Amino acid sequence: MTVRPFLYRARPSTVVFGPGSIELVGEWVGRLCCRAALVLSTPQQEGQAAALAERLGSAAVGVFAGAAMHTPVAVTEEAVAAADRLGADCVVSLGGGSTTGLGKAIALRTDLPQIVVPTTYAGSEVTDILGQTEGGRKTTIRNEKVVPEVVIYDPDLTLGLPVGMSVTSGLNAMAHAAEGLYASDRNPVTSLMAMEGLRAMRDGLPRVVAAPRDVAARSDALYGAWLCGVVLGSVAMALHHKLCHTLGGSFDTPHAETHAILLPHTIHFNEQAVPDLLAPAAKLFGGSAGGGLWDFARSIGAPLALRDLGLSEADLDRAAEIATANPYENPRPIDRKAIRGLLQRAWDGARPED
Questions:
Q1: Tell me: the pLDDT tens digits for 345-354?
Q2: What architecture is domain 14-158?
Q3: Exposed/middle/buried for 162, CB within 10 Å: 0-12, 13-18, 19+?
């Protein structure tokens, strides 16, 4: 084995993992020397956020339940104003990627410390990445200011996550690990984390589907999500994430479902250029990496076709144009015709084939 030169940077975030760990949120607010937490959530999770704020007692100053997909700048500005009005000295983000994104966007503008309590498998809570949407375009930045100080993983909070959402959120996390395997700045540590994250998800998600309230299965999936998120925050993403950002930002497709559908196709596309780097994933899922991921996604009931998200075939032309106008670095050259073909297969819901 020959180890190529590499750079690995470990982020200083604190990770707390275990059933019942939501009870530790108040302790960590205090450890951050904060006394006035603003609890964030989506409208759908406002009840859970209110319960957490009540649990925090005098350490909470209120709830902002306006988080939305793709982190609209207008929503962030409203939340920043609420934090200022209430005198918040930190934010506690309870929920999935939308709420985590809002907390990060607030931190970018205010430097307020963040505690994140994930209830899905998004993985963005352990990264320096923030995607924001304004004027129909989603832009992504990397900035250490948005890295949460504390992440509290409580598998109990995922027991009620609907099976369909568990599946798509899990595949979203897996996309981070899969792209990490061929990232230009990959290193041995992130590659190990990527494969362990994929393994945990491969083993955990089918058990979650079979028994949604199985704490052990939920723990495995949440553990996998954490590892996949660390990979996302440590190395550069490529074609898959570019296409997902294009469809989400310009066509308002649901975030996790878009990742779930595109993942087999983008991995298959790049597998043609770097089969050696994706060989461990191919072995894990059987056959080719792209085909194996598609088979796995189908076996757990994941959505398979972009057309089911409301995209028209005409949208694919514009999506290919946007995605190739300013592409991310990718192991295989990107051109409009090839990407249009990839999107067509994903729109049809067809299994990736050579």
A1: 999 999 998 6
A2: 3-Layer(aba) Sandwich (3.40)
A3: exposed
